[in-house]
Amino acid sequence: MLTKAEQTSKYIIEKVAPIFNQKGYAATSMADITAATGLTKGALYGNFKNKEAIAIASFNKTINDLLKQVAKHQEQSGSPLGKLLLITDFYRNYFEYSNALGGCPILNIGVDSTHQNTKLLEQVQYVIQKTQSHIVKLVEWGIEIGEIKTDVDARAFSKFLYSRIQGAIFMSQTMQDKSYLTDASDEIDKLIHSELKN
């Protein structure tokens, strides 16, 4: 069971995570945070050291929720190749999911923090590296059990898949057109079947 302090921290994060995602770190003020939570600055600083700490906790919450959704979607297959195809399958419908959040948190916070906040940027970089590492492990597992060709460069493929998806997310959000994500997912699937599948 959560302590009162933990419950308050959880409440703060749940209220302000969408604001940081939509407005960005620099544009989100303490006034925005106090308005969203109904708490005083003193109460906020009693739970978090500063605005940066609230922003990092908010980003981590949004990202953890997203990664759980991706992982749950991948549970539909027990094979590495199947799990790779389920990544693209998830992102086919990501347009609606990310719109409900106010945009993709990795894209939004990544771009916003690049010139604004080093610690927040480090969190985004960590998530990207973690996600790419997951793809690498799936490819290596596929090679190991004979589902994927032995000459596939797992690291190069993971970078291609992730950058292609993120590029499509940017275009879909900017143009408000989900076909960018659908087309990218189709392109990656074709590559998986033609270049990876054994």
UniProtKB/TrEMBL annotation:
Q: Which InterPro entries match?
A: Homeodomain-like_sf, HTH_TetR, Tet_transcr_reg_TetR-rel_C_sf, TetR_C
Quick check: keyword Transcription in the entry? yes
At which residues is the DNA-binding region annotated? 29-48
Q: Does the keyword Transcription apply?
A: yes
Output the Gene3D superfamilies linked to this UniProt entry.
Answer: Tetracycline Repressor, domain 2
Keywords assigned by UniProt, alphabetized? DNA-binding, Transcription, Transcription regulation
Q: Which GO terms describe its molecular function?
A: DNA binding
Q: Which residues form the HTH tetR-type domain?
A: 6-66
Which protein are we looking at? Answer: Malate:quinone oxidoreductase
Q: From which organism does this entry originate?
A: Constantimarinum furrinae
